[in-house]
Amino acid sequence: MQESHLYEYAVLRYLPRVERDEFINVGLIMMSKRRRWIRAAVNVDAKRMSVFDNELSHGEILRQLDGVIAVAEGKPSAGPMAANPVEERFRWLTAVRSACIQTSRPHPGKTDNLDATFDRLFEELVL
Q1: Which one, of 41, 11, 40, 39, lies nearest residue 101 by Cα?
Q2: Which of the four pLDDT bands, split at 50, 70 and 90, describes residue 75?
Q3: CB of 117 within 8 A of CB of 11?
Q4: β-pair type (24-32, 101-103)
Q5: 37-42 and 101-103 as β-strands: parallel, antiparallel, unpaired?
Q6: Which of 37, 28, 42, 43 is nearest to 111 (CA)?
Q7: Is 105 exposed, middle or buried (0-12, 13-18, 19+ CB in 10 A)?
Q8: Which end of the chain has less neighbouring CB within 10 Å, N or C?
Q9: How far apart are CA 35 and CA 124, in angstroms?
Q10: Is the pLDDT of residue 82 over 90?
Q11: Residue 98 burial (CB count, 10 A)
Q12: Whole-model pTM?
């Protein structure tokens, strides 16, 4: 019998105009504290983005999201936050903020396969 893992996930969102509260899902962050596992991925579809009145270019949005991914992955180039345990990185990345890159509220779940669940959620919520 496979072991079940508790996890939390949040959807990364791009808000072209924060004051309008319109957004497009551009990524996913998922974490399992017990397994010390975190994964993040993004997909910024330029065609979907073109329907919004964007202040930032596609490249600028990707650079900001690359920073999110670097923190999630614990890359030293992402600064001191990236050295923290996975649950602290997840909490910091999903904290409420008023910026053009935000996350949904974290959602819990339980799974036998973290990677397969991540892939399914990414497909359903982002792609």
Answers
A1: 11
A2: very high
A3: no
A4: unpaired
A5: unpaired
A6: 37
A7: exposed
A8: N
A9: 24
A10: yes
A11: 8
A12: 0.93
Taken as a whole, the chain contains a residue count of 127
Q: How far apart, in whole angstroms, are the C-alpha atoms of residue 99 and residue 37?
A: 26
Residue found under tokens 């409420």:
96
What would the DSSP string read from start to end of 9-70?
Answer: EEEEEE-SSGGGT--EEEEEEEEETTTTEEEEEE---HHHHTTS--SS-HHHHHHHHHHHHH
Among the listed residues 39, 42, 29, the one whose alpha carbon sits nearest the alpha carbon of residue 105: 29
| 2-48: pLDDT as tens digits | 789 999 999 999 998 888 888 999 999 999 999 999 999 999 988 88
Q: How much is the pLDDT for 1?
A: 66
Q: What is the percent of the chain where pLDDT is above 90? A: 78
Contacts of residue 44, defined as CB under 8 A and 6 or more positions apart, other chains included, come to 14, 26, 58, 61, 62, 65
Which residue is listed with tokens 């497009």?
24
